[in-house]
Design goal:
The complex is a heterodimer.
Chain A: H1 2-5, H2 15-39, H3 46-83, H4 87-93, H5 105-112, H6 114-146, H7 153-165, H8 170-180, H9 187-190, H10 197-207, H11 212-220, H12 225-236, H13 238-253, H14 257-262, H15 273-283, H16 296-327
Helix pairs in contact in A: 2-3, 3-16, 5-16, 6-10, 6-13, 6-15, 10-13, 11-12, 13-16, 15-16
Chain B: H1 5-26, E1 37-44, H2 45-51, H3 58-76, E2 82-89, E3 93-100, E4 110-116, H4 117-120, H5 126-135, E5 142-146, E6 152-156, E7 167-173, H6 183-192, E8 195-202, E9 208-214, E10 218-227, E11 232-233, E12 236-239, E13 242-245, E14 248-254, E15 257-271, H7 276-297, H8 301-305, H9 308-316, H10 318-340, E16 347-350, E17 354-359, H11 363-369, H12 374-407, H13 412-423, H14 430-441, H15 447-451, H16 465-490, H17 494-502, H18 507-518, H19 520-532, H20 539-545, H21 548-553, H22 555-558, H23 561-571, H24 574-601
Antiparallel strand pairs in B: 1-3, 1-9, 2-3, 4-8, 5-6, 7-10, 8-15, 9-13, 10-11, 10-15, 12-13, 14-15, 16-17
Helix pairs in contact in B: 1-7, 12-16, 13-16, 14-20, 17-18, 19-24, 23-24
The chains are: A mainly alpha, B alpha+beta.
Amino acid sequence: MKGLFSMGIFTNVSPVGLAIIILAIVLVVFVIAYVLILFNPFKIPIQIKARLEKIFGMIGKTVLIIVLSLFFILPLWIVIAASFTDSIEFIKSGYSVYIPKFSLDAYAYVFKNEKILRGLLNSVLVTAIVTVLSSIVNTLAAYALSIKEMPGNKLLNGIFVFTMLFAAGMVPTVLVIRMLGIYDTFWALIIPPVINVYNILLMRNYMTTIPKSLKEACVIDGGGHIRVFFEVVLPMSVPIIATTTMMSFVLKWNSYMDILYYVAPSHTELWTIQYVIMDLLSNMGAMGEDETIISKYVVQSATIVTTMLPLICIFPFLQRYFTKGLTSGAVKG
Amino acid sequence: MKSRKPLFIFLYFVALFALFIGGIFIFSNDYLRDGKLTLDVAVEKTKVQEKDSSVVDLASFQIYFDGYITSLNKESGDTDYYGVNSYKENDNQYIASVSTRRLDKLKGLGFFRYGKGSSFFANNTTTADLFDEIYDGKIRNNVLRTYQDGSSVTYTFPAEVRKNNKFSVRYHDLTNESYDYTKEEITNTIAKNDSYVLYFELIDFSLIDSISFKLDGSVSGVSFLKSSAGDNNSNIEVDGNSITLKPVTLYASVEGEEVKTNTFIGYIVYSQRISPILISFFVTLGVLLLTCLYFLIFEGYAKIIFSKRTLMKLWKYRAVYVILLPSLLLLVLFRYLPMIWLSSAFMEYDLLDGLQSEFIGSKYFMRIFLAQNTAEMYRIFRNTIFISFIRIVSNLPFILFLALVINSMKRKKVKTVFQSLSLIPYFLSWVAVGGLFYSLLNSESGLINRLFSITTDWYHVSEPWWALLSLSSLWKGMGWSAIIYIAGMCTIDESLYEAARIDGCGPVRQAFTVTLPGIAGVVCLQLILDISNIMKDNYDQIYAMVNGQTLGQIQETVDVVGRIAFTSLRDGNFGSATAIGLIQGVIGCILVIIANRIVKKSDNEGII
């Protein structure tokens, strides 16, 4: 780790940088003061101590939340800002928190560029298909595995769980895909990812916590297992199904490794958007459509922002399911 | 009484799998397809004594011939392409039994070519051209031979071999004793059925009387020499599946001077047996069926399984089995089927040969642990483990901290907004995160470098990367990981907090004395889970964050197991990558099992 400590000379620290350094020092002083007050080595009387604690606590908490929020948002904001920046300005000044000169050039480029649009289309198609398919397949499998009285249940569970213990690895999987003849085709992007044993296990664990009485009530009413599933288990498992569907969606939308391994390098029509972004930096020229100079970094930022949009849209709707879904069945009590 | 049945069943299937994989190798024999051939090379005693007077008996011949073999190996590029199994002698010959591996790679003798008939004669292949040449009585122009003392000679065969040696190579079809095929008829006959062709051109063997070998397959035809004199003499003798090659005298020129050479030239057409994979599969199936039968009949399972009760039970659940089917099918296809290809770790895998590629046993594994690539292997495994370990250890405090902060927030709206903010990074892809970190850290336009005027080039130096990878994992995964802990914190009894408050604990103190101990169980569970996944490198993180060129520069810290898989798929050495992946998988499996045991012992439910 020596490199970390041999920083360059702080010659031309910008004013903003200086401000941040000063703020950091203030923060450290604050924390030291807080700690001192807490542990009270100077024996300040209790009432004053309590009051000081309260004030410091409130300030501290607010500051903390602000700092943490910035920590999460800032890197993203920088990229968003860069995407709206005029390229010439960007080449001069680099990444920053504010937008030196607003411009939609990058977005114009993005939405006119065939490769990017094709990538977006592919991503949408692939993700939609995989999410729907895997939701269905995995939920059904989870239900089947959750029925403890079914003969062979233990064996079947074992078969599924074993694949989480031991995986054959990337190379054998690619070789199988070649053998199946789906290498370098659209099918290779949508068929293998459908099965996700982690999701199945999550759902199975959740389903086993559904009270038996409900299931039995349905059986008494003359229902078979399928009816139990649709009338009792499915409605009650909505949180976990929503969670795993969303996890599937995010995973597939963000994946680029499948293109890397399953598609031949020259076959660019199959690329999904993430791979296009990766490729963007190496292959993009410096000229825009109408001879305007456009920076590939700005375009990359614009594309990244575009890929984030669907997720940001879906996210608020499903957020309330996460906590409930992820944790029932995982934590005892 | 703990039931050990699942363990036995598991071991049984492992054994069955091993049998299948092993069977592929066992039943595939020393087949020429693998490039293995054992040749009996007969050298005439008087001739070799003329060449090197020290060779007077078998022992001195051994020394002489060993040196010769060494030079051939050196020429061919690998120390075990040629080997000598044994030496014998009879009245006028010394006989060395030479074993070869990778006939197609041998150099220094001339060469062998072998392959399926259909691809051998396909248009525009070098093999089809070779065949054309000798049919017309020509052979290749220049042949380079290297001798054991390091010297080399180039033989030039004139386009048409000298008149008094003019020959052409025809095909003797042994199945119907036919000698008169045209070129097209030959190629059609050979190419149409599942035949293999072994073509050889071995140059300048003044000392060698004959070369014999066995082919494991039935010979359907051989080449023979048709000389201008009109007689058909074959330099290939076939006896069952024993082949003996006799030399042909050809004139060549070496540096302008005419030289007589003893040449072995021609081709053999033979057909293959049933695929060893099929044989192995049926044998394994047979074993499985036999054990099932045994249990059915002798252990009385027949009564249970085929009883009306069980059948009724199965019927009752028929719908459930049906809905399980698609996922089971996919599981077998994409999780279990690849396991068969794990056998490629023991082969020099070739895309064309597939699973029938040459068996080399544990050569890759030896390479990993011993000689050549040890430094590289050490670095790969060390990096994988270190990166995971540093990530786990350094991220935990921060994740817990975030969980504490979120848990202690009272106002609902602020809490939801803040938690949502913390989850935003989770939704970004590693490609996007790579771009983000680049925007912050790159040496020219990166924000941090510009603000603080740091001139260090973080990105292209090895050392910071362990920290960078940890940091990016933290930033991306913090919100998501914290959820589990927050949920755990919700279950802590309120009264404990009351008690702490009464005792005068501020919020910070409470966190340390009530909250953290309260979720200790969850934390341990997560930790054990994470550590058991230590061998899993997050290669999509690494590949996305480090663009191609830098990857080479920062190899010291960032080279991980996944990289081997990646480069191997580009370069084609599948076998070694599978071997490394196999090691990774086995270690990971053992770790998970241990972790699960530990978790079970502490009264929790276990992950599995």
